[in-house]
Amino acid sequence: MSPTTRTLIFTDLDGTLLDHNDYSFEAALPTIDYLNQANIPWILNTSKTLAELRDLAKALGNRHPLILENGGGIAVPETYPVPEGTPHSIPTNAGDYRLIALGAERSFILSMLEPLRRSFRFQGFHSMTEAEVVALTGLNPIQARQARERHFSEPLVWQDEPEALKDFGTELATHSLSLLRGGRFVHVLGQVDKGQAMARVVDHWFSDTATGCEGALVTIALGDSDNDRAMLEAADHAIVIRSPVHAPPRINHPNPRISTQTGPQGWAESLSRVLNELGYITVNAMEAL
């Protein structure tokens, strides 16, 4: 690998790095350890909330900015500067992170959803009990409580006809809101997505201007669902992780890759292959020697 080339990884979590059924990432631990030891920055780009991500990032050894709620915001750790002039806040549950809002606030989203209940059938996290979230997601009660602590989006269970979802999205667009389909839910958020948030992270912290370094920046993105499409299409290397429950998303990319395995096994296998092609000697490559 050329010493002037830098690598930056963006990854989805549920169904990608985390197993769809039990949320385990154990199968990916050797590759995660390699990334951390090699100082390759890897950005979590997920539908999860800051409350969910704070402890998970620690468990993963991830000390980088976190893209929250499908691109609705960025959580910036204290070790990274907040760009001058960028509005940010420090919620009570933020810990050592500062929040940068990229999309609409959740309070605005909820106010726009309320009148739409007269025309469409859906249920959002805001109106669910903790027990209902547990039943829908398989999360434990603490994790379910964290999943409901949202700042920039509202996940919905769509209870209406599938055809009505298009009309629902059209109504949302009149309020500058958008609709994304995830693995389990449809998500209402501002007119942002994971790809836009990815570009913001690159500009703020990893561009030539931000780092003072010259040379190519190679981006790798991994995801499994339709809500990962913008992120995958924006990357130099797009890796679609095969899902046990739905078909791979169709993406507009010159050379998309699809893992042979699902979840964290597919994540580790596919990411190691790309890193090996870029000149890194990963755990998988060393095992083959």
Would you spell out the secondary-structure blueprint of this structure?
Blueprint: E1 6-11, H1 29-37, E2 42-45, H2 50-60, E3 66-68, E4 73-77, E5 97-101, H3 106-113, E6 122-124, H4 130-137, H5 141-147, E7 153-158, H6 164-173, E8 177-181, E9 186-190, H7 194-206, H8 208-211, E10 217-223, H9 229-234, E11 237-242, E12 257-262, H10 263-277, H11 283-288
Parallel strand pairs: 1-2, 1-10, 2-3, 10-11, 11-12
Antiparallel strand pairs: 3-4, 4-5, 6-7, 7-9, 8-9
Helix pairs in contact: 4-5
Order of helices and strands: EHEHEEEHEHHEHEEHHEHEEHH
| Poorly predicted sequence stretches spanning 5 or more consecutive residues | none
Spatial ordering of strands, largest sheet: 5-4-3-2-1-10-11-12
If helices are DSSP runs of H or I spanning 4 or more residues, what is the number of helices?
11
Total domains:
2
The CATH homologous superfamily of the largest domain corresponds to: HAD superfamily/HAD-like
Identify the CATH architecture of the largest domain: 3-Layer(aba) Sandwich
The CATH class of the largest domain turns out to be: Alpha Beta
Share in helix? 25-40%
Radius of gyration: 19 Å
- In CATH, the topology of the largest domain is named Rossmann fold
Q: What is the mean predicted local confidence, pLDDT? A: 91
The best one-word shape is globular
Distance between the termini: 18 Å
Structural class, please? Answer: alpha/beta
* SS elements, strand count: 12
Give a short account of the largest sheet.
8 strands, mixed
User: Percent of residues in beta strands?
Assistant: 15-25%
